[in-house]
Amino acid sequence: MHAFVDESLQSSYLLAAAILKPADLAATRTLLRALRQGPQPRIHFQTEGDARRRKIAAELVAAGLRTRIYTGRGREEAMRQACLRRLVRDLLAMGTQRLVLETRGRREDLADSHTIRTVLGPRPRAAGLEYEHRRAHEEPLLWVPDVVAWCHGAGGDWRRRVSPLVEAIVDLDCLS
Question: Which of 5, 69, 105, 156 has its CA 20 to 30 A from that of 142?
């Protein structure tokens, strides 16, 4: 499995992860690229109009993609690292081989790397999970968690539209 991660901050912090089988990567990238409009370098759900949002969400649901959401309330960076710790533990349990996170900048990416290495333990290669940060325009599969995080955070009809994509919601507030 491969996981692609993005975040959203609306009423609470959300970290969304799209989980894909290696055999589905190429076809899903092709679908996502086809959903861009004109010379658009990427899909960024926050900047899309409602009609485009509905179309994109429907296409992702029709593709049968699956995602997981990690959420909680608190200071943004602390919440991100808590969500990331739990996500990495879950990915290891699923046997995930690769984790791609949308880059946020050098210092922030280093914080993510520190958290991931801490979870992986003293022999990170033995855990079998490789990870990297990428720009969203470089990796179309990062657009999936962007869509799901935005819709889930917006609530109401938007949340309903992507609910078939969400296989799990881990609320860290409820685990405290």
Answer: 156
Cα–chain center distance at 75: 19
d(CA 56, CA 126): 38
Sign of CA dihedral 103, 107, 108, 109: positive
168 Cβ contact list (under 8 Å, min separation 6): 68, 69
Predicted TM-score (pTM) of this structure: 0.92
pLDDT tens for 42-82 read 888 888 889 999 999 999 999 999 999 999 888 888 899 99
Residue 175, token pair as written in the block: 């685990």
- Residue spans of the domains in the chain: they are 2-175
Residue indicated by tokens 């485009």: 52
Phi-psi region of 143 (alpha: psi -120 to 50; beta: other; left: phi over 0): alpha
CA dihedral 72, 111, 127, 99 (to 10 degrees): 70
| DSSP bridge pairs for 4 | 18, 100
DSSP per residue over 41-62, as a string? SS--GGGS-HHHHHHHHHHHHH
